[in-house]
Amino acid sequence: MEKIPVGVLGATGMVGQRYIYLLANHPRFEVTYTAASSRSAGKTYEEAVEGRWHIGSDIPDGVRRLIVQDANDVSAAKGKCRFVFSALEMDKDSIKKLEEAYAADDIPVVSNASANRWTDNVPMLIPEINPDHTDVIAAQKKHHGWNKGFIAVKPNCSLQSYMTPVFALQKAGFPVKRMIVSTMQAVSGAGYPGVPSFDMIDNIVPYIGGEEEKTEKECLKILGQVKDGKIENASGPLVAAHCNRVPVIDGHTACVSLEFDLPDDKKPSLEQIEKIWTSFRALPQELKLPSAPVQPIYVRHEANRPQPARDRDTDKGMAVTVGRLRECPVFDIRFVALSHNTKRGAALGGILNAELLDAQGFFD
Length: 364
Prior knowledge:
The chain folds into 2 domains: 4-156 and 347-359, NAD(P)-binding Rossmann-like Domain (Rossmann fold, 3-Layer(aba) Sandwich); 157-339, Dihydrodipicolinate Reductase, domain 2, CATH 3.30.360. 27% of the residues lie in helices and 21% in strands. It is built from 13 helices and 14 strands. The chain has a 6-stranded parallel beta sheet with strand order 3-2-1-4-5-6, sandwiched between helices. The protein has a 6-stranded mixed beta sheet with strand order 10-7-11-14-13-12, covered by helices on one side. The protein has a two-stranded antiparallel sheet with strand order 8-9. 48% of the residues are buried.
């Protein structure tokens, strides 16, 4: 099968570099176009990232000599790729405007950026949870008068450590009423160079700008439904979040306490919950998408797991690992969940979104 030519916007940044690395030898996609700021434009990719290639592997040969284009020159991408991954690092208004410019020029955008997450006709995808949200793309195109172009985004990285286990419970008939979520987020989530080492070593920073608001609100869009050409947010669960930066390189951990919206005699047992999690499969597994985990949720029984260093790479770094499932004296249950923030939560999650869109025929 012929590969689809793809581009990467923001290709020289940390997330862009991960796209370049992860797309090497992909069975469906081939990087044929790279774009970044005007400072990098005109250089080969190898020259543009000289001294700041932060991936623990060599630059893929197929990209090394590609000439980096100016991401603001939308016309430069025409004829060179069928869609682009957006890993742009700009202010939100500029990203939103530029992503819309690519879509208007018949180039679909699969975005890692947050600029369009709250646009009500843009799907914010976790493919195991809301693959049907791509239904809103037709209304998005009609609204803008776009032909082939559209925008799809992924959610905040920390949500992906616990949203799939929560969704699996709701899908099994156990609606969640309220949750308290405390996240311990890796320094890689802050980009490079990120938090200064003097502030991070031997320390915890109990604040990440905008993170608690994203945690409390984005889940409602993910769990919502497409209605009248827009995504209508779910009414619950109600979420209270505490977000902390911790001295871990990769892997976001979440401590979750949740309450079911059910009478006591209808609530699931711990044994039922574990069975729901370990048996959960969804559309990416049915379609056998290349980047999808074989099993979306893994349950650990050790008292001290999950741990980022031991569990973040489970199933290609695309699975959620859950442990310490137990009763909660305030709500109903509590557990610890972990996911890989720079794989599932960033570039590889974006690639999985593109694989879903490809399987659904959006790049035909």
